Amino acid sequence: MSRINSARRGCKDVFNAFLVSTATYDGLFEFPCIAACNEVPRRVISFSKAISCKDYEQWVHFYEDDYLFERLWNNPRKYLPILQKYQGVILPDFSLYRDMPLVMQLWNIYRSRAIGHWLQANGVKIIPNVRFGDQRTYNICCIGIERQGVISVGSHGNLKNREDREIFLNGLDRIVKILEPRVIVVYGAAPDKYFNRYKENGIIIVQFDSNFAAAHKKME
Questions:
Q1: What is the pTM of this model?
Q2: Which tens digit of pLDDT belongs to each residue from 71-84?
Q3: Burial of 40 (0-12, 13-18, 19+ CB in 10 A)
């Protein structure tokens, strides 16, 4: 059931309630709703590099260590004018480690969605980053995202270890069934043996090398 966030006069905003002042919410945990995006990035740049870059013909992503973009949560208004210059934003990839308490995983999903709603409200094109931790978050991470749009996932670091790979691929299968995306942006490797089944079902896979992989290729 959706509802509208209400204003709280006279209270210091210690949890960035302004981000969701016009939001509607979805699900038991009331994640802010995100409208579907139909734009597909041709180039991407990390948030930490985007701050000082003048090439705005690309999309900003957050597939980097949390400490490099935690400042966006701490001071969103400061970075809004910068993000508005770019073609769009792939929503923050706050970490969801499997050994995190579930409440912390939920908090990090919420933070990404709150920023996403606020950016959309301020005219920024956004692609939801669908990040899951353990199996409990497979369904939860889809709450509030409009179906049949463009989504993004980060595969970097999730395909080498067997256990990590199984959890990532099982989670990806689940979110594809729930969200029915027409395009999946993949930051990191997208091997055919894992992603061909999505292509065969008509889903477009748009892959970008991680910064680590791109740097390694330059050294070869």
A1: 0.91
A2: 999 999 999 999 99
A3: middle
**Which pair of structure tokens corresponds to residue 19?**
């981000």
**Distance of alpha carbon 138 from alpha carbon 103, whole angstroms:** 14
Q: What is the pLDDT of residues 134-148, one digit of tens each?
A: 899 999 999 999 999
The angle subtended at Cα 130 by Cα 19 and Cα 200, nearest 5°, is 145
Starting at the earlier edge strand, list the strands of the sheet with 183-187: 150-154, 183-187, 204-208
d(CA 72, CA 169) in angstroms, rounded, equals: 29
Which residue spans within the chain are E strands per DSSP? 25-26, 31-32, 44-46, 59-61, 88-90, 126-127, 150-154, 183-187, 204-208
Q: Domains of the chain: which residue ranges? A: 17-219
Are 29 and 20 in contact by the 8 Å Cβ rule? The answer is no
The first and second tokens of residue 144, run together, are: 């509030």
